[in-house]
Design goal:
alpha/beta; Transcription Regulator spoIIAA; 2 domains; eight-stranded mixed β-sheet; two-stranded parallel ribbon; 18% strand; globular; EC 1.3.98.3
């Protein structure tokens, strides 16, 4: 489920997301459309006799929403699908530490969220500034302290090798700082210079392929040394050096959704802007996509609701 809003837009980002300071007025309208999408999706899932096993709320930054908005989102999902979210694997992206509050964590915990992503990308204040983040490494640590105090969450932390102003030595310091926080999962990305990003448009000096390789080698060595194991891998277009993104986990904390989305064995059904659905049955796969941008999504909601009939049609029910 997609919440395509962030506090600000990072310079490397090409995901479907809107800066809240520019699009705050869209959020209530977006949520009203999303409620209709959730109802239509749940009805189609019931008719197709499918059983939800995992929910991943991503973005954007879902914790851009207020605590009451997150509560309503979770409550509507539970009512529509007829289950408690704590009965299934439930992950929430809280990627920006400046969006995490005690109240939001209490709401998510009360609805059964068991995994949360707090994504620093780097622990260097200089690099954070270079990519357009309006928080510091200290803010990341404070956010982790809030999450740990709330209790009950496995934590993922994302890092990106190859960011502007970063160096192999600086990346190793980031690794040390993140590992000291003992997250259950660490996802190591390689910078992807996608065409929709500000960084791609403005250009500028970036670490070369040899330096990025050193960063990734350092990550591999440090994560193995600290008891993590790689459990999924994928590549994107325009990645620095042609490298990859790797998800690492402490044993027993693997995220099923990350495995499902990499394989062609499980149906993935999306709700919200920018969503990509993949319906799977023996010998065939069907994909369909939601409009990418919030306003486009809002204006298209009637067609989106009707389009969920493809789920039951695919399964012949």
């Amino acid at each position: 489920l997609g919440i395509p809003f962030c506090p600000t837009r990072c310079s490397y980002c090409s995901f479907v997301s809107q800066s809240v300071e520019k699009s705050m007025a869209l959020i209530p309208r977006y949520l009203e459309a999303l409620w209709l999408d959730i109802e239509a999706t749940a009805a189609a899932v019931r008719r197709a006799q499918l059983r939800p096993v995992s929910l991943y709320i991503g973005g954007g930054t879902p914790t851009t929403l207020s605590a009451p908005e997150l509560d309503e989102l979770c409550s509507r999902l539970e009512r529509a699908f007829g289950l408690r979210l704590g009965e299934i694997e439930f992950t929430v992206e809280a990627g920006r530490p400046d969006t995490i509050t005690r109240e939001k964590l209490e709401v998510l915990k009360s609805h059964g969220a068991r995994r949360i992503s707090v994504n620093p990308q780097t622990m260097s204040d200089r690099v954070l500034e270079a990519i357009g983040r309006r928080h510091t490494a200290r803010d990341i640590i404070s956010a982790l302290e809030l999450v740990r105090a709330a209790g009950g969450f496995a934590v993922n932390m994302d890092l990106i090798a190859g960011l502007p102003q970063d160096t192999p030595e600086g990346f190793e310091r980031t690794l040390d700082a993140v590992l000291a926080l003992a997250p259950e999962n660490v996802t190591v990305h390689t910078l992807s210079m996608k065409r929709g990003s500000t960084l791609s448009a403005i250009g500028g000096a970036l670490p070369g392929a040899e330096d990025v390789a050193r960063m990734l080698d350092a990550a591999c060595a440090a994560l193995y040394k600290n008891g993590y194991e790689p459990y999924y891998l994928y590549r994107q277009k325009y990645m620095s050096g042609g490298f990859e993104n790797v998800g690492w986990t402490r044993p027993g904390f693997e995220n099923l959704y990350n495995i499902y989305i990499m394989e062609e064995l499980t149906s993935i059904i999306s709700m919200g802007a920018g969503g990509s659905s993949k319906l799977v049955a023996p010998g065939r796969i069907k994909r369909f996509f939601a409009p990418k941008y919030p306003l486009e999504y809002i204006k298209s909601i009637d067609g989106i609701q009707k389009g969920k009939e493809r789920i039951t049609e695919f399964y012949g029910l």
